[in-house]
Design goal:
By secondary structure, this protein is mainly β. Helices cover 0% and strands 56% of the residues. The chain has strands at 3-10, 12-16, 19-23, 29-32, 44-54, 63-71, 76-85, 99-109, 115-123, 129-137. It has a five-stranded mixed beta sheet, with no helix packed on it. The chain has a three-stranded antiparallel beta sheet with strand order 1-5-8, with no helix packed on it. Strands 2-3 form a two-stranded antiparallel sheet.
Length: 145
């Protein structure tokens, strides 16, 4: 059965040719600057990286992935992101070999308030993997220090 092997948050994520590139990855605290007046909470660029491990017996079949961001009260931010992953068996792959699908998601997100959040990734045939973090507001520069 396929499984979410890893899930990371960061400032930016890219997946290219089976390789993952992240900037500012693995944090647990996100410090956001003040929003322009009368525009609501600031917009934050946010990256999510996911590794899905597909064992030999689960290749050549679809695996449905759902990724969502929740606040600490369980309210979902935006729409969940859904994707179907299907790993084939390339020629010459040794029998029994696992394969890894690498996915990167980037978005400009408006976290409604400071506080706790989590990203959750679930495959239809796997338990959920999640990563938690806290969003903090930085005071305007004139008020710092």
């Amino acid at each position: 059965m396929a499984q979410v092997e890893f899930l990371l948050v960061g400032d930016h994520a890219e997946a290219n040719s089976g390789k993952l590139n992240m900037l500012g990855a693995g944090w647990t605290d996100l410090w956001r600057g003040p929003a322009p007046e009368a525009s609501g909470p600031p917009i934050t660029h946010f990256g999510i990286a996911i590794g899905v491990l597909v064992p030999w017996a689960a290749t050549n079949q679809p695996h449905h992935l759902v990724v969502k961001i929740e606040d600490e009260d369980g309210q979902i931010l935006g729409e969940p992101i859904e994707a179907d992953i299907e790993m084939g068996r390339p020629p010459g792959l040794p029998e029994g070999s696992d394969q890894r699908a690498i996915l990167a998601i980037n978005a400009d997100i408006q976290f409604p308030a400071a506080g706790g959040y989590r990203v959750m990734a679930r495959l239809t045939d796997d338990e959920c993997k999640s990563v938690s973090f806290r969003v903090h507001d930085q005071p305007p520069a004139a008020q710092q220090g």
